[in-house]
Amino acid sequence: MKEEFKQYFIKILGKENAHFDQTHKIAYSYDATKKHYLPDGVLFPRNEEDISDILKFCNDRGIIVVPRGAGTGMSGGSLAVNGGLILAFEKHMNKILEIDLDNLVAVVQPGVINMHLQKEVAKYGLFYPPDPASMEHSSLGGNVSENAGGMRATKYGITKDYVLALRAVLPNGEIISAGKRTVKDVAGYNLAGILIASEGSLAVFSELTLKLAALPKFKKTAMGIFPNVKSAMNAVFKTLASGVTPASMEFLDNLSICAVETKFNIGLPINAGAILVVEVDGNIEASIDEDLKMIKHYFLEENASEFKIARDEKEAKDIWFARKNCSQSIAMYGKLKLNEDITVPRSKLPDLLEGIAEISKKYGFKIPCFGHAGDGNVHTNIMVEDKNNQEQVKKGYLAVEELFKLTIKLGGTLSGEHGIGISKASFMNLAFSDAEMNLMRNIKKAFDPNNILNPFKMGL
Amino acid sequence: MKEEFKQYFIKILGKENAHFDQTHKIAYSYDATKKHYLPDGVLFPRNEEDISDILKFCNDRGIIVVPRGAGTGMSGGSLAVNGGLILAFEKHMNKILEIDLDNLVAVVQPGVINMHLQKEVAKYGLFYPPDPASMEHSSLGGNVSENAGGMRATKYGITKDYVLALRAVLPNGEIISAGKRTVKDVAGYNLAGILIASEGSLAVFSELTLKLAALPKFKKTAMGIFPNVKSAMNAVFKTLASGVTPASMEFLDNLSICAVETKFNIGLPINAGAILVVEVDGNIEASIDEDLKMIKHYFLEENASEFKIARDEKEAKDIWFARKNCSQSIAMYGKLKLNEDITVPRSKLPDLLEGIAEISKKYGFKIPCFGHAGDGNVHTNIMVEDKNNQEQVKKGYLAVEELFKLTIKLGGTLSGEHGIGISKASFMNLAFSDAEMNLMRNIKKAFDPNNILNPFKMGL
């Protein structure tokens, strides 16, 4: 980074907000992928005008800018893989600007942590439905950039369903607003629609207007134990088609069940083919009891050997314990975990898991799977026993490629929650045609003709 | 249209699907705006390949193409205002391709009529939530192009919330697919997101994958009579913030009430400031009764002079009668109706209606309003008494402009449901900055560099 550039940023932001020392560079070189790329500097914009000034300056000089929320991304979206400046919102642009009770809307800056918003709106009996597993640490700007999902997607949808409007700065420094504080707005192109999930590559968010919902007054948890995945999934289909829509329908496969049981010894049925954990919520207790009655009916009809409803919060926590501890428990199967967040139409989940069993056999890896049965989003974990064995690691990545091919064949997507970033960029050509890739490149160019904003991510 | 061009289309489509006679041109020259523009021809593609062949040919030669669903649009989106070819889907591409019960999804061609889909999926206890007033006649391709709303938007959202995936043909003839049969898909840009609401100007839909929902088993209707709009809206805010989300919350203002009463003499309270019509639905009767109890509580707290719950379907129909007959009844106020579908954040509805009263006074027009209290979408009707009086008509359009300015000032949008097309194109600069308009033009160029697809609509 040229000295005169550094001086410009120090001049407009103050030296406390423009950093070019090694310590800052290292601190902002990583995300949850555990990959490291040193940026050329770290800037903390104080407001929208700062973002605009920075982008205009960089755009005129071809300096790369990478927006960054909390750095919890799973696909490298916020990594400066080609150098450039990190634009970080955590220091100043982390405020909840408004909680609007009449319209059930929150207006926030991009650096607000998801859980911070949840806690504030809970004071008014409200919640923000998107609940990525990272929600205690991840920022809403990052959530919108990656279009984060979560446990409640079956009933409540994902991030894009809750962004009513936003303000953003284009790479040339122009400030735009998109959408309104209304459910209905059909004037002009759906600019917010294309900015959501764009992984910080089209514009920099400066303000987000998010839809809130009333916190359900009651919630209950139940668990069913199934002989195999097919019967568990049939129970899911029947439940959802009946009009009962649980907030969550989570599953563990046999390997995941065994891993949790081995580690924690909590009495899980190690011969079960699958466990489903279900949470129902609503404002009327009798109504969710009725939901549970129907769920029980469909679960037993599909040969669940046990159906247990938690009688209190402690029992609910016990039931959730297995699901929430999958990720750490499966470490017993290998030192290197190649985990993906593929998603298939939920009807294809049994086929997917069958195919995964074949991949497991072919490559000799254990592949425990758990995740969101209600929406077909599976966390697959190819467990490579020895992470220092190059041969094994290479085979592991071949298995990943095969997994992606299987997913696409079943009408699924490379990523249900984490985004593409750099970690799945090389697989984009499996999922998209040349025409589709070219179209995405043309859209990128329409927003960012000089290619300064988080360039070359997503295989673009 | 050059003879050789005509011959090409006849060759690839057959003469029964390529028409250049005056009768066809006239038949496809109109939509619900009642404006007429003669196209140069009418083509009925039989499949996606036909669309691709047509577009490629036209793109290479600069021939304008205008996709058209059922011609029920309210803003001129399907009118060939600059000539060119109408691409009509009603003859061949009108099939429901699949109803997928496990994933609760329907796959349809763009020419399928909304109500046709509703009837088919109702056989399985399902429904497609978006319910534009035109649903008995409008096509799903048109619904997606305009991002149609409806009565149920407060609870169920609008068209864009139900499009999971689509196939489309780019102006250069390339076929793309966007989205998956899954709630979660975050691979690549949200191409479906930008295509929805693009008014046929970016690509031509060839297939739509739509999310379905289980039909609620019970629904009940109620009505509240309020002294003024402010108290009615307060009742709406309190209801929604409490977690009770009616499927519909519709309102009539005093002028609308008086018009319906004058025409039908059904005993409406002509001194009331507003009537709210509420519909609640759900699977458990006790639960919707509880909802109604809470609604009644909030309505009475906000000075409703009456709260009536329909005891059967007949009584429900009677309650809905007033709302459904607003549009025709207000004709008593003038021969020319300048109706708009502006939307403001619902908290601003009282301010909007106050501002409208001032516009009414200033210009001397009656402006009855009714619509969707739950989502802030108001059907405003500037009633010009004498449509042959040029002076009056001109004043009417000045009043429309003032209405749009007021709407924008209140954080609202030019259109909640109908789209911009040609009818609101000249007001786009009130609602969007130069930066936003330029960005939309750049997006248009990214999809359609030769500007052949429904060009110059939306003020682009």
UniProtKB/TrEMBL annotation, chains A, B:
Record's PANTHER family?
Answer: GLYCOLATE OXIDASE SUBUNIT GLCD
Any one Gene Ontology molecular-function term assigned to this protein's record: FAD binding
Entry's family note: Belongs to the FAD-binding oxidoreductase/transferase type 4 family.
Record protein name field: Glycolate oxidase subunit GlcD
Answer yes or no on keyword Flavoprotein.
Answer: yes
The record's keywords, sorted A to Z, are:
FAD, Flavoprotein, Oxidoreductase
Name the coenzymes or cofactors required.
Answer: FAD
The species this protein was found in: Campylobacter aviculae
Please name the taxonomic classification of the source.
Bacteria, Pseudomonadati, Campylobacterota, Epsilonproteobacteria, Campylobacterales
InterPro entries in the cross-refs: FAD-bd_oxidored_4_C, FAD-bd_PCMH, FAD-bd_PCMH-like_sf, FAD-bd_PCMH_sub2, FAD-linked_Oxase-like_C, FAD-linked_OxidoTrans_Type4, Oxid_FAD_bind_N, Vanillyl_alc_oxidase_C-sub2
Q: Which residues form the FAD-binding PCMH-type domain?
A: 35-215
